[in-house]
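hi! just following up on the protien thing from before. the input was this:
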Amino acid sequence: MYKELKKFKTYSIFGFRPEESLETVCNAPEDGSGVFLVYDIVDGERELIMVGSTGTIQNDGTLKSKNGGLYDKIVNGHQFAKTGRKYSWPAQMKLENMGRIEVDWFVTFNEKNKVIPTFVEGQILQNYLDENGKLPRWNVAF
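and the predicted 3d structure came back as:
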């Protein structure tokens, strides 16, 4: 786990296979803002393939989040096409011959922690870039 994530106490993980329903297996909160990390699982090893976030902090320090929170961003956020991940992830996984991914999610902005989700996303991506010289393969840009 990335050290930036250890302080967040509201978190979980779920697995997903292309034949499953992302809407059903996703256990992320509909009222939480934060980050999510996607891992390709190959022979029991986890390879980070994507980092994403949701939630915007306003200049008065309040959180502006879209309805549906992390759950909605993971399930319905667009990636690979102008369609939700519930459709694009299974298609991409089949293209890449992937059997299973795992998604770790963390609420970074709540009563206890007030850490900007995109800040945490940027920290993790910077660490990945420093270690690997590139972004995770499902992150197109940052």
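The two ends are 21 Å apart (CA to CA).
The longest helix spans residues 117-132.
cheers
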